[in-house]
Fold this protein.
Amino acid sequence: MKEDEAFIGFALTPSNKLGKINEMGKETFLLSLILRNSYLAVFVNTLLFYSICANLYSQTKIDSLVKELMVSTDTNKVMVLYELAFEYRKLNTDTALQYANEGLKLGEKIGFQRGIAESNNIIGIIYRMQADYIEALKYHEKSHEIFNELNYKPGIANCLNSKGILYSRLRQIDKALSFYLSSLKIHDELNDKQEIANLSNNIGTIYQKKGILDTALFHYRRSLSMNKVLNNVSSIGYCFINIGEIYENLEKYDSAAYFYFESLRIFENLEDKRGLINSNFYVGKYYNSIFEFEKALPFLTIAFENAREVGTIEQVGNTAKELAKSYGKLRQFEKGYYYQGLSDSIVYRLNLAEVEKSIALTEIYYEIEKENEVRDLKLKRQKLLRNFSIIAFGLTLGLAFFILRNYRIKNKANKLLAEMDEMKSRLFSNISHEFRTPLTLILGPLEEMLELEKEKKPGKKAVQMMQRNANRLLDLVNQMLDLSKVDAGSTKLELVEGEIFKAMRVMILSFASLAEKKKIDFSYQLPGKKLVTWFDPDKLEKILNNLISNAFKFTPERRAVKVEVRLDQQHERPSQPARLLITVEDSGKGIPDDQLEKIFDRFHQVEEAKEFETVGTGIGLALTKELVEVMHGKISVESQVGKGTKFNIELPVGKEHLKESEYVIRESDATMSERKAREPVTMTEEEEYREEICSDEESSMGYPIVLTIEDHEEIRTHIREHLEDNFRVLEAANGKTGLDIAIENVPDLIITDLMMPEMDGVELCKRLKTDERTSHIPVIMLTAKASIEDRLEGLETGADAYVTKPFHIKELRLRVSKLIEQRNKLRERFSREITLEPKDIAVTSTDERFLQKAMACVEEHMGDSDFDVGQFQDEMSMSRMQLFRKLKALTNHTPSEFIRNLRLKRAARLIEKDFGNVAEVCYEVGFNNLSYFAKCFKDLFKVLPSEYGKTKG
């Protein structure tokens, strides 16, 4: 999907250069014949005409601006530089950035505030295209601030739109939508129809990301209609892309292809590289979706090369991912691996600060060129081997040379790939390290509680500590991306005024139960006096938690861990602030001397894996060092192998030594150590209301069946205990077993985990939704993956709901009730539609195709009085129970009722058409008992067959 920027528009006017238009006449005529629709043909002719005009205009646009730049005054020159930057953003972002920075410097020199604001905004747009989101946001904020001071509403609205696009890229879609709506409100006041059209398109992208496709399509079509009136051909092209993507999501591939190719035709005529990147990408992605991978390659290659030339990093990664898919499916694995490696590298560059810091995109391209060289040499070697039988003995030495050279380069490339894999492994290992501290503080008291006698209850403080650390674990998951702020230098201290030693005592004492469990002598020493000062409790707690938890981790039983806090006040130097001296000392294994200077490196791991494989030298210690430096402190380490390790920290006290830009003031009760544990999630009265699922019709069959598929036994037990009062719960430990149980028992709802052995939740959901026996069953997907991509992957496979772990059991119970209620409503719909003849029902889903097949089967045997449920289930390839539950779930009819009602409907049609007397109709539709036929007919239509024709007449 593609958002539109605010831009300086121009009106398209007819061109006198009719030669190119005449060249397009034949193509336009043929396209009109294909469309077979006069209105649409007129639109395409008009669209091509204006595309050519816009193309002729764009060819001279930049040249005209450069000439104007030479003769403009300073004020006008700033705006011309802005327009040049805006135009070049489509061609090369580096060139665009040069013009924008030149305009900004000139605007600041002459004090032209509006020009400064416009330049800041376009710089933000360019940085966003280069995936430098932090810089982009900084420039957008500057621009917004200046426009607010000037009260220049068009500029304010454009900034809001730019910030909306930025937050949309960052997947904060609710925040993005609020910016779009604020911008739309201003443009409505200004009656700026062009920007209203653009914002309608942008709002559509938000609803598409939310999965509300009908609302998204409404906004796209609104934008398209307005752009047609305004003759804005470029924006029409982007609308076509977005509408095509909607149809692709709906699996209406023919409609999607039409819109994609129309957008491609537009941008080719405009020679718009930015548009060509998107249109070629989506055409290639479309061909991948329909498994025509060879056709996808040329379009994706064009998109990839243009994106790399323009400098749109995110689009390079997206296109590389699709190319990897195409080459992989075509079994061209070397090329597939090449593009997959590029895609993975760019993903890390866009999302993880350390990868962004250590691998620049230019370095990625350089590594790729090395891989290309290896591939070329392999091809040469294969050619030489094929011709080996005709090569003279004198060339053997040369062949050996090439083989040796190829071997060396291959080893070098393999080493490079191994280093990249090792870096990824270290990255994930270091991230997981951050989870260990709160988990340690949860598992310690939990194991202690399990050892208590039944009569004894666990202490309230221990439970509160477990809850607090569980919440901290969730916070760590949500705060991982905030690590990039430290590297970017944008982290600020959040200061509160309070008694610092009291807060530290609470932080340190949280390890007491762990010390008791591990039988470690845990001692601490703090100054006896009080000290009320300014400090950042959150960062101080993270520093202490990392160091103390590491000390416990590497200290054996019966050894000691010691924490000492002292206050060093240097009165002889009044300008220097007092210093807090913190020492954390353990008596564990110690760290080798050659590793001490590396332990604060984020990607470092101790080489002696067998003896020191759990040494905490990952992201935890790296983050600790960075936090200490943010607080203007120092950290050092001393260690002796076999004796232990000691960390020394010096932290200045107060805020006098800090610049105002380095901190913000928070309320004093926000200290993390003294903050109350968050209250459990509560639900509204409406949500707590327990749905009565079992209707009178279902009571004879028992409670609705819910199948839980989860490899974790305790989670299955937890779900079963909270559902078994209202549902009959079946269980499976993996996707393969769960699929067999689902096919055999046909439950009313399935709850499945995403990650499972043998068959994961995605594959399970695909199989359920494509099997006629189980396609109607609603599926709830459980997973610990919380990103929007993972949610979309689950929903795209057909899952009806997505619940993130850890989940609230009331929410899950409510989801189960609501989905079964929705399935009952769907059953009522099918029950109403089944009153029609089979040919009157549109086949739009697996369930409806099943009904179509079932009705066709009954219709084939309409006059056969011996056709019964047994023969019906054989022809449907289902067991009696499967057929019963499937038809009951969809139509609320048993198989025998289904057959009987279809026969009665056909009888009613025959009576309406005066087919014959009642007896003839009775035997025609498979009844062999006239009185039974009359009784059944009256039960369904409320009149006897002999009277039915009269009432219809």
